[in-house]
Amino acid sequence: MSAWLGLPDLASRRLGGGVVGTNDELFAAADNLVTAEPPGFTPRTFGPKGQVYDGWESRRRRSPGDDWAIVRLGAAGVVHGLVVDTSFFTGNFPPEASVYGCRLDGHPSLDALLAASWEPLLPRSPLAGDTANAFSVPSSAGLVTHVKLVIHPDGGVARLRVHGAVVPDPLRFPDGWLDLAAAEHGGQVVGCSDLFYGAPGQLIEPGLARTMGEGWETRRRRDDGNDWVVVRLAAPGRIRLAELDTTHFKGNAPGAASLSGVDEREADPADAAAWRDLLPRTDLRPDTRHRFELRTDPVTHVRLDIHPDGGMARLRLHGHLDDGVLDTLRAAWRPRAGGGGN
């Protein structure tokens, strides 16, 4: 398994990704490309335009050319891998695809995107039908805000996953105050004890959880231990407000929770002795957004321990970037992408 598959999907609708243009979506809408949930399929389900597909599908081409869709990434970053998922497309998948990236700041129009210089992320490559086709991308591609999927010549693609490292846009937090744990800013879950009922990465997704299924939930423990999750923060920072949200968890919320942290610039996170308390073990209430004021030194990783088990909807760690970090981010956004294109 490629390590980059563990990186966030920068194109996901959950992070704010969206399809901003396509040349053809007669059979199925291109918006489906960025749906966070896995594709599904119900056989013999027909609409006015034929079998209903959970994906993007263009008409059969009778002229030269290729079909394309442009995706605005929910979080800009450096792309490390792509998944062109043709699940359930068997006799109607594209035989080949290519992907390009560009960086355009602000809120560019479709015309501006069509006129942009697009750098190749994936050269024209063969696809298999009904398959999550995975491709590594050299990190030299640089910062990307939009990607363009080109299918050769036509057909259907269920999902496009754009895995990469988020590069937080400093314009979103000019004073250096942000949710340091948020996935949209570059926070990432790097370890957990149990994910039986719900993925821990959902803890740091945008917005409020709409159901219990949109949080992290562990199985019932039958021992003396407790469950935990470790988040690598978007950037080193000082936490001032922690939010531990048990919304929707009523009979299965943790009885208590605690927070600890470490600064990897000073100590190895693998060294248990290097972690220091940020929030002592504190009782939690079911179905409640708990908020705790903190005054921490700079940390790069935070561990949430729940006692003994249960479910959490969201974890928010609001605070200030450490000295010099904001300047580093501004420098990362200063250079402009350039070069060839499609």
Automatic annotation (TrEMBL):
Gene3D superfamilies attached to this UniProt entry: Galactose-binding domain-like
Allantoicase domain ranges (all copies): 16-166, 186-320
The protein's Enzyme Commission number: 3.5.3.4
Organism: Asanoa iriomotensis
UniProt keyword annotations, A-Z: Hydrolase, Purine metabolism
Top-level taxon in the UniProt lineage: Bacteria
Protein name: Probable allantoicase
InterPro entries cross-referenced by the UniProt entry: Allantoicase, Allantoicase_dom, Galactose-bd-like_sf
Keyword Hydrolase: yes
Family of the protein in this entry: Belongs to the allantoicase family.
Main EC class the enzyme belongs to: hydrolase
SUPFAM superfamilies xrefs: Galactose-binding domain-like (SSF49785)
Catalytic function, reaction form: allantoate + H2O = (S)-ureidoglycolate + urea
Pfam families (UniProt xref): Allantoicase (PF03561)
Pathway(s) it belongs to: Nitrogen metabolism; (S)-allantoin degradation; (S)-ureidoglycolate from allantoate (aminidohydrolase route): step 1/1
